[in-house]
Design brief:
The protein is α+β, with helices and mostly antiparallel strands. The chain contains three helices and three strands, in the order αβββαα. 52% of the residues lie in helices and 14% in strands.
Length: 101
Amino acid sequence: MPPVKPSESEEEYFARQEMERRRNSQKEIEARMKDEERARLKELHHMRCPKCGMELSEYEYRDIKLDRCSSCGGIWFDQGEMEELLGKGRDFFERFKSLFG
């Protein structure tokens, strides 16, 4: 007895299923690569000065940990640290000026 050949609609269905499986597999690979690249870049740039690339050292000022470049002397704030440091009350620019003046 000869093998039963699938109908055209069955072939189309299985082709679509295979294409969807490959597409999902490719998306997973891309997502994993993106996560790995993000981790690699984070490791590469962690505690490095955005201006000159030298190492940053952490120091505490008013109970807030700031990052200072060992080469150019730049001070870098993590998210929310500047707002926390400046607090509320006096004029923003006055506080900023007094911080670095």
